[in-house]
Amino acid sequence: MISRKTSAVLAACLALPYVVSKVHFAMAGQLGVHGGPRVTADDYTKFGDTADVSAAQWGNVAAGTVIFVISLLPLAPFARRWNRWVLAVPVMAAGSTTAGFGLSMIVNGAVTGRGGYPFGAYSVVWGAMQCALARRVVGRTTQVRQPRTS
Questions:
Q1: Tens-digit pLDDT profile for residues 120-134
Q2: pTM for the structure as a whole
Q3: Domains along the chain with CATH numbers
């Protein structure tokens, strides 16, 4: 079984390729993600210009960074005093959303023929690691003081 610390580090590390990829595309003002579906000219019609595309990509960078921080939060010493559900719910939400997004990308790639399987599979693994971390956070135990018997 993987420890909570290992789960947190793995989940955080899996966020980094996404963030780096989105930074690359944001700086170039392009849609897409490495290993994702092919981007067509029609995809750009949803945005006004390159600045709008770039802004959307920077929003994705922010989302990936938030998931990175949420993944490492259970390791913070101050977080040990928090209720475990305060930590587990955001981690589980990030994981289930990411895994669901990955599954939908795989299905969409199969139906439309646009590809995206590598990024979809990566997203499923990333989401599964987030969910495993949430399970470790919920399962954490604290020492319970036993009442004194005289």
A1: 999 999 999 999 999
A2: 0.82
A3: 4-138 (1.20.1440)
